[in-house]
Amino acid sequence: MAKFVLAGKTDCPLYAKAELLADALKRSLPNFRAHKISILPDDWKEWLEATCKRNGWKHKKSPLVWRELVDQGGKGMLLGGFSDFLEHCQDYYNITSDMPTDIMLSVAAENLETKMNLILEEQHRASLFKPLHIWISSALSPTCHLLIPNLLSAEVFPHVDAISLHLLDLEGGEEQLQGLKIEMENLGLPLLHQVSIHTDLDQAFQEAGVILLLDEWWPDDSDAENESEQERKNRKVKEVSDHYREYGKLIDTRANKEVKVIVSGDSFVNLRCSLLVDNARSIDSDQFVTMATQLENEAKAIMAKKLRVKASDITDLIVWGNISGSFYIDLQRAKVFNYDGAIKGPAFFSQSLLKIFHDRKWLETDLQDLVRCQRAAVASKTCQAAAMSAANGILTILKAWNGTCSPDKIFSLGVLCPGYYNLPDGIVLSVPVTFTEGKWSVLFDVTVGDELKEKLQLSASELRRVCQVTKILRDVVS
């Protein structure tokens, strides 16, 4: 069945006249069908040119009328403007239009008002729909691939209806990011609203509600033949500093003020977090954290083998200090469930780890060394970073931060330490925290003896030296 399509400017009197003529035909002819397309005056020229180009037509004025041989979307046959439509109706249906000019103008004004009201209603609906914007850096890394399928879930974001995901990778190609985008869209994740890809910082962190900064790729040093180890490290520190100062400034001006920022990876995580805090002054420093969850889980796995339990049976380990440098695994609050010892109990029964494992020397030496080597061992066997444990650590912290964990559960988190445990201000160190109602707070119900204080001071001094190097290198360049 043939159908007529009428398109025109909303304020066009001839379009109004064509509309009413089509309505008269529908009343007189039960099988007559017409579809109307109202275009705002400012958009008409562009729409008309695109439509004519697509169909190979030539037409300059409003309205535009054509016939389709099937329902909307079929092959179109151009009739022309209002005069052509009127002539067709007179010839085929013996129906004409005698609308007075004042009514024609009134209908045109009504068309424009109706169209504007529809646009306002749509804008209002759009304003009510506010997806959570999540930005992920180094999006082509293995960690990101493992992270995404579990990230966009109600378990991680229980109070979110939709998520817009932004994939940022400054070193990767747009084609690779496009492939990742398509793969994500094919997952059919219920919370996923849209995916955007970025290979530069032009739009970076716009409207961000969550920012996940994964380990970055640093240039290969192989060309620097005469470079000493210290010079190589200083160069890397400068590269990190330049990147993260810029990130911090962009987050400060573009992100949501309640943004949650997690710094992840193996390299300079405390420094990277500290640089963000220093350069995003309008955002609360509590919104920037770096996670020691990987170290916690690696220590749990090592202890679980010793105690012949599952790694998940060990809880409340504490990681103190510089996550990428001098850290310390503290077991003073650690608990063990399902231990096959002299004392047993139901599934909820736990025992202090220090009461069932008595080799203190091993805990203070071998355990610390094994944890330091664990991630390198994984990397050497898989030829890539420990991406799975990094992704799992991010998910663990996000769940806790979004209120899906017990307020008694202890986490190790790298945070700015303004006077905590008599540590110097302005240093990001890993300390024990708990989460309550979407906020973390430092756990002070722990014993910080002289030996632990000495280890913390060592971590703080290590980080202060790195911060001083970044300042010196920046001053040299400027």
Written description of the protein model:
The protein has 478 residues and is an alpha/beta fold. The chain has 3 domains: 2-126, Glutaredoxin, CATH 3.40.30.10; 130-291, 3-Layer(aba) Sandwich (Rossmann fold), CATH 3.40.50.720; 293-474, Lactate dehydrogenase/glycoside hydrolase, family 4, C-terminal (L-2-Hydroxyisocaproate Dehydrogenase, Chain A, domain 2). Helix content is 45%, strand content 18%. It contains 14 helices and 18 strands. It has helices at residues 13-28, 41-55, 82-93, 101-128, 142-151, 174-186, 229-254, 269-279, 293-307, 353-356, 360-364, 366-382, 387-401, 450-477; strands at residues 3-9, 34-39, 64-68, 76-80, 132-136, 163-168, 192-198, 210-213, 260-263, 288-291, 314-315, 318-321, 327-330, 335-337, 350-352, 411-416, 428-436, 439-442. It has a 9-stranded mixed sheet. The longest helix is centred in the N-terminal third of the chain and has 28 residues, at 101-128. The N and C termini lie far apart (75 Å). The model has no long low-confidence stretch (mean pLDDT 86).
- What is the end-to-end distance? 75 Å
Describe the strand arrangement of the main beta sheet, using strand numbers: 7-6-5-8-9-10-16-17-18
Structural class: alpha/beta
Strand content: 15-25%
How many strand segments? Answer: 18
Q: Residue share in helices?
A: 40-55%
How many strands, which pairing sense, and closed or not: the largest β-sheet? Answer: 9 strands, mixed
Can you tell me the residue ranges where pLDDT is under 50 for at least 5 consecutive residues? none
- Alpha carbon gyration radius: 32 Å
Number of helices: 14
In CATH terms, the superfamily of the largest domain is Lactate dehydrogenase/glycoside hydrolase, family 4, C-terminal
How many domains make up the coordinates? 3
- CATH fold topology of the largest domain: L-2-Hydroxyisocaproate Dehydrogenase, Chain A, domain 2
CATH class of the largest domain: Alpha Beta
Can you name the CATH architecture of the largest domain? Alpha-Beta Complex
C-alpha geometry = elongated
Mean pLDDT: 86
Pfam families: Ldh_1_C
Keywords: Oxidoreductase
Protein name: Malate dehydrogenase 1B, NAD (soluble)
Family: Belongs to the LDH/MDH superfamily. MDH type 2 family.
